[in-house]
Specification:
By secondary structure, the protein is of the alpha/beta class. Helix content is 49%, strand content 15%. InterPro entries: NAD(P)-bd_dom_sf, Sc_DH/Rdtase_CS, SDR_fam, SDR_oxidoreductase.
Length: 280
């Protein structure tokens, strides 16, 4: 009997997704992986093994296409144990300069695509009475930086979605984790991966400084994709994985600093907050 796990991973042709796929195949698990181009994905993975690897061309903006990919995975492997919603991209610039379509596009991939995948997979995991959903968020969704407002909004949405989803599906033996990394050397800041919104205003010095700092850090980020992939695999083996996992020392620092500030602000404004209720 084959006891390896079956993984379904989106955005798998580069970055963390590709690193994770390669490591899972190396250790003997079975993987269905999505990309806009399955041929490119197959070449990147460099493995021809239809018994363990199923590369899929999937348009994540199309619900029918997502449903078909899940059915193909079930036909090939019989079950789905772990889902990793990794597909997504960054947007750097100001809200003023972002077009309506820019905003719709990034929410479509970073948020709605993940929801489409989960929607299709949940009936499978409920029948199994087991499963694990890993949504790749970002520390920016909790403690963002200037210039990343729209991107941060998508990742905050993923975090909130994951929190409530976890409570919805706990009774079925399904776990949920939102992984919130800081900077990793995954090509996230590369020209062909990042949506750069030109800053047209004369001001916005904080945004411009942040943009220059982040672009200069491309290829020098402290996060190691190999280590991140190993952590995700370890999470899949845990009996009680965390709901939130801030990944990387910078992510841990930023989250800790914000929690400290938030806790102080909550206490400072407590008397105002509770005045909003009807008197007892």
């Amino acid at each position: 009997m084959n006891t390896s796990k079956v993984w379904y991973i989106t955005g798998a042709s580069q970055g963390l997704g590709l690193t994770l796929v390669k490591e899972l195949l190396r250790k003997g698990d079975r993987v269905a992986a999505t990309s806009r181009n399955a041929h490119v994905l197959r070449q990147a993975v460099e493995l021809i093994d239809s018994d363990r690897f199923l590369p899929l061309s999937v348009d994540l903006s199309n619900p029918d296409c997502v449903e078909e990919s899940v059915q193909q995975t079930l036909s090939a492997f019989g079950r789905i144990d772990v889902v990793v919603n990794n597909a997504g991209y960054g947007m750097l610039g100001t809200l003023e300069d972002a077009t309506e379509q820019d905003i719709r596009n990034i929410f479509g991939i970073n948020v709605l695509a993940a929801m489409r995948v989960v929607k299709q997979v949940l009936p499978v995991m409920r029948r199994q009475r087991s499963g694990y959903i890993i949504n790749i968020g970002s520390v920016a969704g909790f403690a963002g930086a200037p210039g990343w407002s729209v991107y941060a909004a998508t990742k905050a949405a993923i975090a909130a979605f994951s929190e409530v989803l976890a409570s919805d599906v706990k009774e079925f033996g399904i776990h949920v984790t939102v992984v919130e990394p800081s900077g990793f050397r995954t090509g996230f800041l590369a020209q062909d991966s990042l949506a750069m919104i030109p800053v047209t205003g004369e001001d916005y010095n904080a945004v411009k400084d942040s943009r220059d700092r982040y672009l200069a850090a491309n290829g020098k980020q402290p996060g190691d994709p190999d280590r991140a992939a190993a952590i995700l695999i370890d999470l899949s083996e845990a009996d009680d994985p965390p709901l939130h996992l801030f990944l990387g020392e910078d992510a841990y620092r930023r989250a800790t600093e914000k929690l400290t500030v938030m806790s102080a602000a909550l206490e400072r404004w407590k008397t105002v907050a509770i005045k909003a209720d009807f008197p007892l």
